[in-house]
Design brief:
The chain contains six helices and eight strands; from the N terminus they run H-E-H-E-H-E-E-E-H-E-E-E-H-H. By secondary structure, the chain is α/β, with parallel strands linked by helices. It has an eight-stranded mixed β-sheet with strand order 1-8-7-6-5-2-3-4. Strand 5, helix 4 and strand 6 form a beta-alpha-beta unit. The longest helix has 13 residues. The protein is globular, with a radius of gyration of 18 Å.
């Protein structure tokens, strides 16, 4: 059963909450995207600029859309298991074989072994932390993470809620669709004062799918038809 992501729209307040600074003090770069899986894929695209090995160590207990990001990026995938307390059971012999480690908390608590994360970092393994389940934990994200990704729409009524953070340096990939520089796709497609051609809809959808983590329209969560026009 999916948890979160079904909240009605809520107006955004005007008061700053310093969420990014709390999650990752002194971040190198941030990007606002459509969803958490878009944020993970965006981090992967940046990592792929230097990662020639492309072997990932992922949690066996995770959403298929998260795993789909690594499949789409062409990574070889290995999984780690969990004990009865939802703590990861890492295998240290995997460290020389992998180039990226994905860790996340569950139901509000980070349960992974930070010593294992440190060993990965010391061996040149990049670390991505998915903080979706611990988005509002009083503790900041893992200090050894190279990238942080979070889906805020699992917690509140926002139209788009993916956030990607790079701890050091800036993202080296171009952001096609961003909250920073575009208005909601629903407005673009349904605004009667601005007709939308079928070709333009196809272009918008193609760009959205690039960051969806899956090459499947089921993961592009907006309608592609409006009154009097349907996409063939």
């Amino acid at each position: 059963m999916e948890i979160g992501g079904f909240f009605p729209y809520q107006p955004v307040g005007s008061e700053p909450n310093n969420y990014v600074e709390h999650t990752c003090p002194d971040p190198g770069d941030t990007a606002h995207l459509m969803s958490g899986r878009c944020a993970i894929y965006y981090c992967l695209r940046d990592l792929m600029l230097t990662d020639q090995k492309r072997v990932a160590y992922l949690p066996s207990y995770d959403c298929e859309t998260v795993l789909g990001c690594f499949v789409k990026a062409g990574y070889e995938i290995h999984y780690y298991d969990f004990d009865k307390n939802l703590s990861p059971v890492f295998e240290e012999e995997m460290i020389p074989q992998i180039s990226v480690l994905l860790v996340c908390g569950y139901y509000g608590y980070p349960t992974y072994d930070e010593n294992f994360v440190k060993k990965c970092k010391a061996s040149g393994v990049s670390v991505i932390v998915d903080t979706t389940h611990t988005a509002f934990s009083p503790l900041p994200a893992c200090p050894d993470a190279d990238y942080i990704a979070v889906s805020l729409r699992k917690w509140m009524g926002v139209a788009s809620g993916g956030l990607a953070i790079k701890r050091k340096g800036t993202f080296g990939v171009k952001l096609f669709l961003s909250i920073k520089n575009s208005f909601p796709l629903e407005i673009r497609l349904f605004n009667p004062e601005r007709p939308t051609s079928i070709q333009e809809m196809r272009t918008i959808i193609k760009k959205a799918m690039m960051f969806s983590g899956k090459r499947n329209l089921c993961f592009v969560k907006f309608s592609i038809s409006r009154k009097g026009m349907k996409l063939p």
